[in-house]
Write a structure and sequence with these properties.
The protein is mostly helical and about 70 residues long. The N and C termini lie far apart (about 35 Å).
């Protein structure tokens, strides 16, 4: 998650690659959190930190999707 917050300087190809990477990381975090909760192998603080990271990824994904989706003038 070393992506700069200013995505306006990135090409669409770069954004599409980053989008896929972020989606995969989000999915992996979701699976990891679920596994930790089911097994009881992590403390609440660790789970909260992972959930926070997952939310940041979701925000980044939404930001990139908005950038890639053309505006439709009604």
């Amino acid at each position: 998650m070393n992506a700069p917050s200013d995505i306006s300087m990135k090409t669409e190809d770069v954004l599409r690659v980053e989008l896929e990477v972020f989606r995969r990381e989000h999915r992996d975090l979701d699976e990891a959190i679920t596994a930790m909760v089911e097994r009881g192998t992590a403390d609440q603080l660790t789970i909260q930190r992972l959930k926070k990271k997952k939310l940041r990824l979701k925000d980044l994904i939404s930001l990139i999707e908005d950038r890639l989706t053309p505006d439709i003038i009604a």
